Amino acid sequence: MTLTDPAKAGFDAERLVRVQKRIAADIAAQTYDGAAIAVARGGKTVMLHADGFADRAAGRRLDLDTPIFSMSIGKQFAVAVVLNFVERGLLSLTTRVSDVIPAFGCRGKEDVQLWHLLTHTSGVITQIPPLPPEMLFNLQAFVDYICQHPAENVPGSRVNYAILAGHAVMAEMVRRVDGAKRSFRDIQREVLFDPLGMRGTFLGVPGQARSRMAPVVARDKRPGFLDPAGLEALGAAVTPEAEIPGGGYVTVVGDVLKFCEMLRGGGATDVDGHAVRILSPAMIDLASKVHTGTMPNGLMDYTINFRGWPVHPADLGLGFFLRGETLHPTPFGTMASPRTFGGLGAGSTCFFVDPERDLSYAYLSTGLMEDSYSIDRHQILADLVFSAIID
């Protein structure tokens, strides 16, 4: 990936260096262990940088090719496949889940549609259930469990972020309309990863990635929305065969930037001199609009007392978070345009695309932080990037 002089992409180079300096200071303070960041504008990459440790305890440095556990930015990888299948006419945003997975249609879930899952308004299980790995990591077994679980709210009435269940159901929908003969992993590889050249990204942790990946370590032990020890255990336990579309991937920062560039390009990008289209401009436009009105995200309720944060709109599109109009803590930066959209992973990962400024941003880190403090970190870094744009 060739780097461009920041000035040629409208950046003040000295201001842009502030991003790397802030990352270095945070790593030195042991706020977290390491970070890999990529920034591009108008298709020109101006920053591709890694600093700190893949494994601080072992003294192993982080580099751009170190596989890092995706956390929830893997959700958007799954969403891209789901939306691709909508564009193929195999699914519709208004398809009832029970029309594809009949066992799902019970206990208040009868009228759940695909768009409810994409906007986290379906009422499916929000928390990670206490299941043994052989069920949690097996897509079909996990979906069978979800089917028997009652809805937590009336579909469309509340935004309540589903950590794993919603994306498992969507992946199983894709698998079934594909003919139910292939794994979601294979479908995703064919539809998304191979076309975009995302060669360092895998659903599950294959052997060649396990030996090089950064271990999942909670640097920040403050109790927040998720249990730090639980995340460490999840990262250590994921197998090559595990299918967790809600976040069980490993990836590298250059691959996340390729994914961002596809989104920034209206669903298409150049790969090795060839145009590759995953989605249409119309679908990207629809997916990057707010579809949850002014409803808040139940995920963030704990921050009201814990951090004194205000209640604010969830600002969810079809599978993507948006910056939105109001001033509140945001991983995409307070200076981002309202239609900025992307994804966020527990205590570590973030990516976004700002269509107004033609900007793509990808960030992976090691040494998990508590989620709300990680959002603070992402906001600061994003604002440093935006403050460096002068043209």
Short description:
Helix content is 34%, strand content 14%. It has 391 residues and is of the alpha+beta class. The strands form three sheets. Strands 3-2-1-12-11-10-9 form a seven-stranded antiparallel β-sheet, sandwiched between helices.
Descriptive report:
- This protein has 391 residues and is an alpha+beta fold.
- The chain has two domains: 6-71 and 206-387, Beta-lactamase (3-Layer(aba) Sandwich); 79-185, no CATH class.
- It is 34% helix and 14% strand.
- The chain has 14 helices and twelve strands.
- The strands form three sheets. A seven-stranded antiparallel β-sheet has the order 3-2-1-12-11-10-9, with helices on both faces. The protein has a three-stranded antiparallel β-sheet with strand order 4-6-5. It has a two-stranded antiparallel ribbon with strand order 7-8.
- Strand 11 (350-354) and strand 12 form a beta hairpin.
- Helix 2 crosses helix 8 and helix 6 (139-148) crosses helix 7.
- The chain is globular, with a radius of gyration of 19 Å.
- The two termini are 23 Å apart.
- The mean pLDDT is 96.
Q: What is the residue-mean pLDDT, rounded to a whole number? A: 96
Tally of individual helices: 14
- What fraction, in percent, of the residue positions are helical? 25-40%
Largest sheet: 7 strands, antiparallel
What is the CATH architecture annotation of the largest domain? 3-Layer(aba) Sandwich
Based on secondary structure, the structural category is alpha+beta
The overall number of domains is: 2
User: Strand sequence of the main sheet, in spatial order?
Assistant: 3-2-1-12-11-10-9
- Classified by CATH, the class of the largest domain is Alpha Beta
CATH fourth-tier homologous superfamily of the largest domain? DD-peptidase/beta-lactamase superfamily
Amount of beta strand: 5-15%
Q: What is the fold-level CATH name, i.e. the topology of the largest domain?
A: Beta-lactamase
Oligomer: single chain
The outline comes out as globular
Radius of gyration: 19 Å
Number of DSSP E strands: 12
List the helices and strands in order: HEEEEHHHHHHHEHHEHEEHHEEEEH
